[in-house]
C-alpha cells in the first residue's frame, strides 16, 4: 500500500469540511490568527497557507465580509459571515448532516452484514 | 525583524501589484502574532535561528504567494480528459506520418539506417512542438475557464461494440483467401497481369532476376498463407499454433522484403528492346512504385506482428 495513502485520503476528506468549519466559526467575528487558533483548539487544524487564501476566496464569492481595524496597536483584518452567506451556510450544514447520517447508516448496515456472516 | 520584512517583501514580489499590499499586511499581522505567542511561551525574544524556523514553517515565499493566485494548475481536472485525448490523437497522427515518410525514404533513398536516424530525430522535435502547442491551447482554455462540451451529446447506442481480439472475422479470412488465391495463380503463371513473373511477349514488364532466389520461398509462404486463411475461415478464433505460424510467416516475409529492397531493379522490360531515355525513365518509375508497394507490405507485416504478439500475450 502507498505509504502516504492515509494522509492523501485524509486531506481529501478534510478539504470540503474546512470551508464549512470556517463559515460556521465566522458567525462570530475573527481575524485570521484567532480564527486559526479557535479552529485548532476545537480539533480542526488548518495551516495558514490554506486559511488565508480560503478567506479571500470566500469573501470574493460574497460569503464573507471583512474590514481592517486596529487592535493591540496593530492593524488586523476582521472577517465575519456575510448576511447573504447565511442561507448558503444553512444549506451546506443540512447537506453535511445528511452526509453524516448516510455514512452512519452505511457503516451500521455494513457492520450488521459482517456480523450475520 | 528585518528578516520578517525580507520574507514579506519576497512574498509580495510574486503577487499581483493591486493585491500585494493587502495580502502582505495580513500575512505580516499573522507572522507577528505567531512570533509574539512564541516569545510569550519562552519568556524572551526569539533568537535568529528560532525566527528563521517560524518563517520556514510558513513556507517558501513563492509557494505562499501562489496560493493566492487564481489559477492553481496548468490543466485542471475538467480540462484534463480533453487535453489527454487530443495529445494522444496528435502524437499518433504525427507518428504515423513519420513512420510512413521514414519507410518510403529508407526504401527509395538507398541509406535505410541514416533515414531511420534522421526520421527519429526529426520526429522527436516535431512531436515536442505539437505537444507544447496542444498544451498551450488547453492551458488557455483552463485559464479563461472555457467550458468544453465536446462529449455532452453522446449516446450509449453509438459506442463501439465490444471486440474480442481473438475472434477472426469471416470477412477478413475471405479477403485473405481471395488475395492468396489470386497471388498464387499469378505467381504460378496461371493468371496473367501486366507484370509477368516468367515473361510474356504480350506484357510490357516482367520481374527481374533479383526475384529468382526467392521464388520457392515466396511460393511456400503464399501456400501457407492460403492454408492459414482456410483454417481461420473454418475455426474463426486465434489459437497459439496459428498465431505462431503467422508470426513466423511475417518474419520470413520481412526478411525476404529486406533482401529485395537492396536490389535497385525489381522490374525490367519484357522485350529486350533498345532503351530510349523515356522508356528508361518509365522503368525507373515503375521500380520506385514497386519499392513503395513492398514498403507498404512490410508495414502491414509489422502491424500484424505487433497484433499477433499482443494476442499471444492475451492467450497466456
Description:
- The complex is a heterodimer of chains A (about 120) and B (about 325).
- By secondary structure, chain A is of the alpha+beta class.
- Helices cover about 65% and strands about 15% of the residues of chain A.
- Chain A is built from 4 helices and 3 strands; from the N terminus they run H-E-H-H-E-E-H.
- Chain A has helices at about 5-25, 30-40, 50-60, 85-115, and strands at about 30, 65-70, 75-80.
- Chain A has a 3-stranded antiparallel β-sheet with strand order 1-3-2.
- In chain A, a hairpin with a 2-residue loop joins strand 2 and strand 3.
- In chain A, helix 1 packs antiparallel against helix 4 (about 85-115).
- Chain A is elongated, with a radius of gyration of 18 Å.
- Chain A starts with a helix and ends with a helix.
- In chain B, strands 1-2-3 form a 3-stranded mixed β-sheet, covered by helices on one side.
- Chain B starts with a helix and ends with a helix.
- Helix content of chain B is about 70%, strand content about 5%.
- With about 325 residues, chain B is mainly α.
- Chain B contains 10 helices and 3 strands.
- The interface between A and B is medium-sized, with 14 and 15 residues.
Amino acid at each position: 500500500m502507498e505509504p502516504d495513502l492515509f494522509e492523501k485520503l485524509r486531506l481529501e476528506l478534510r478539504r470540503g469540511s474546512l470551508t464549512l468549519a470556517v463559515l460556521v466559526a465566522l458567525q462570530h467575528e475573527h481575524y485570521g490568527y484567532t480564527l486559526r487558533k479557535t479552529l485548532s483548539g476545537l480539533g480542526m487544524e488548518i495551516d495558514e497557507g490554506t486559511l488565508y487564501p480560503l478567506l479571500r476566496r470566500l469573501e470574493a464569492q460574497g460569503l464573507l465580509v471583512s474590514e481592517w481595524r486596529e487592535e493591540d496597536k496593530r492593524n488586523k483584518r476582521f472577517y465575519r459571515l456575510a448576511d447573504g452567506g447565511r442561507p448558503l451556510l444553512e444549506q451546506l450544514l443540512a447537506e453535511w448532516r445528511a452526509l453524516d447520517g448516510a455514512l452512519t447508516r452505511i457503516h451500521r448496515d455494513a457492520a450488521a452484514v459482517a456480523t450475520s456472516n | 525583524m528585518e528578516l520578517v520584512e525580507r520574507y514579506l517583501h519576497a512574498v509580495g514580489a510574486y503577487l499581483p501589484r493591486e493585491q500585494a499590499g493587502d495580502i502582505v499586511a495580513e500575512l505580516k499581522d499573522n507572522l507577528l502574532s505567531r512570533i509574539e505567542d512564541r516569545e510569550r511561551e519562552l519568556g524572551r525574544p526569539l533568537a535568529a535561528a528560532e525566527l528563521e524556523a517560524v518563517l520556514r514553517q510558513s513556507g517558501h515565499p513563492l509557494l505562499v504567494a501562489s496560493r493566492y493566485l487564481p489559477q492553481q494548475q496548468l490543466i485542471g481536472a475538467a480540462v484534463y480528459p480533453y487535453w489527454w485525448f487530443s495529445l494522444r490523437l496528435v502524437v499518433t497522427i504525427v507518428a504515423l506520418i513519420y513512420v510512413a515518410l521514414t519507410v518510403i525514404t529508407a526504401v527509395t533513398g538507398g541509406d535505410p539506417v541514416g533515414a531511420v536516424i534522421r526520421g527519429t530525430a526529426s520526429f522527436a522535435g516535431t512531436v515536442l512542438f505539437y505537444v507544447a502547442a496542444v498544451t498551450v491551447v488547453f492551458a488557455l482554455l483552463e485559464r479563461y475557464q472555457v467550458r468544453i462540451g465536446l462529449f455532452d451529446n453522446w449516446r450509449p447506442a453509438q459506442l463501439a461494440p465490444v471486440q474480442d481480439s481473438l475472434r477472426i472475422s469471416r470477412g477478413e479470412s475471405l479477403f485473405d483467401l481471395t488475395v492468396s488465391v489470386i497471388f498464387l495463380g499469378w505467381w504460378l503463371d496461371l493468371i496473367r497481369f501486366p507484370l509477368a513473373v516468367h515473361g510474356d511477349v504480350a506484357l510490357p514488364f516482367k520481374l527481374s532476376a533479383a526475384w529468382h532466389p526467392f521464388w520457392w520461398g515466396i511460393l511456400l509462404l503464399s501456400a501457407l498463407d492460403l492454408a492459414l486463411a482456410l483454417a481461420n475461415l473454418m475455426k474463426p478464433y486465434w489459437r497459439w499454433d496459428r498465431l505462431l505460424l503467422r508470426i513466423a510467416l511475417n518474419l520470413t516475409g520481412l526478411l525476404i522484403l529486406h533482401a529485395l529492397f537492396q536490389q535497385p531493379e525489381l522490374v525490367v522490360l519484357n522485350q529486350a528492346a533498345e532503351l530510349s531515355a523515356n522508356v528508361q525513365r518509365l522503368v525507373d518509375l515503375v521500380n520506385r512504385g514497386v519499392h513503395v508497394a513492398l514498403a507498404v507490405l512490410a508495414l502491414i507485416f509489422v502491424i500484424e506482428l505487433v497484433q499477433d504478439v499482443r494476442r499471444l500475450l492475451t492467450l497466456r
